[in-house]
Amino acid sequence: MLKLFKTLKINLTIFQKLLIGIIALLILNIIVAYVGIISANKLEETSNILLKESNKNSNLQNLKLNFNELLMPANDYLIHGNKVEILNFKKLDDIVKIQLKKSITFEDNHFNEHFLEEIEDILFEVEKLSNSIFELEEPIGNNEGAIMMEVMDRIVLDAQKKIDVLIASSSSLVSSYTSNNQITNTNATRIIISVLCIIIIFLLVGGYYYVKEIIRPIKNLTSIAQKVTSVNSKSDLKKIPTKNDEIENFSNLFNNMVSVLSDNTVSKDYMNSVLHKIKESLIITNLEGKIIIVNKSTLELLKYAENELIGKSINKVLLGEKKIEPITTENEAVQNIFNTYFSKSNEAIPVAFSKSFILDTNNQKTGILYLAYNQSERIDKKTDIKNETLFGYGKIKINEKTPLTNREIEIIKLIVKDYSSQEIADKLFISIRTVETHRKNIMVKLHAKSTIGLVHYAIQNNLT
Fold first, then answer.
1. Domain count, the chain
2. Most confident segment among 61-65, 215-219, 390-394
3. Is the whole model's pTM more than 0.90, yes or no?
4. CB-based burial, 323-349: b 16+ in 10 Å, e otherwise
5. How buried is 295 (Cβ within 10 angstroms: 0-12 exposed, 13-18 middle, 19+ buried)?
6. Cα separation of 356 and 334, whole Å?
7. Are 58 and 182 members of one domain?
8. Is 253 inside any structural domain?
9. 143-159, pLDDT tens digit by residue?
């Protein structure tokens, strides 16, 4: 198993490792989402059942109470002989019928439905006996009425017992579903927490090894520079301060190597032969951005001859043949960002890109070093991506189809013409708050950090 792991580690590229990590995270997130959806559906289903059972239980309680009250009008009629009790009975009888009908509607258990049919028969008997009592001409002290009343008491008591059985069945079902809800909620919580812990561990461990893979090529270049410097130095080397920034450490070491080589009788051809052994693209410019050194990997990548790049602006590589003013900032370095180089035929080549300043012994800037790792093989050939790196303003993605809406395009055109937010609002008959919202959305969509970035985008896409 260990040998297999080592083999995979050697054969997998950084892109493949990152892709595997992304797929693994996606699967874990799908598991979390699936568990959440299943649990939510289960809770919703049981909640609906609980609501139905609760309504059924409440209706049965009222049915039991009103069934008992059905005895009162006939009993009072035998005591007082007041005909108003007939109306009271009819009202109670209608209420009991409605409640009984609801109970039948709620019920889906065949056994319970049989109970309700028996209760319905009992209600019919109560109606029949009550009507017989109300037909007595002399109800007060009537023995026949008293006998019928006793019969009604017995059958109503029997109906209440049957209703109690239905209530107990409903209460048991409510208790069962409540318990199931708690179990479902507990299990879902445990699964989600477990998966989230796995995701956190995966991010920590995977992130560590991924970053380690990124800085490995830089450390290899640093090792090469150290060997060249130590071999060609005739005097004691000045100790180079070590910083946390790997690319800056390499730049300082590279500068020291150049200094050592210039102090010795090493020819420019020898130095170039060393640079040409570096597999990654390496370009060195002066502070004005004019290219002074390119290695063989760069020439092969961009299909240029050396004399076609030496003395030219770095923008020839970074911007190709686009007729736009480059945006630059001072005192800024970048590490391992996704960028685009342009070949002699203006073909866009995706690269992992780093930029750092070369310092002399007095810590003064003497040039700029550009390192790039070709990413063409790691990007899906069907994807057409063109990225422009605007140092200091982030990256603006330019696709064949603009990411902006028609309204946002109107606003960016007015921004380029130096209209204020209030002037734009007045011109487009919208509120200034709406303008500010559109402006914010535009900045997010274009990955721009200032108005200069928006102007640059407008020029690139002919929106001026």
1. 3
2. 61-65
3. no
4. eeeebeeeeeeebbeebbbbeeeeebb
5. buried
6. 7
7. yes
8. no
9. 888 898 899 889 988 88
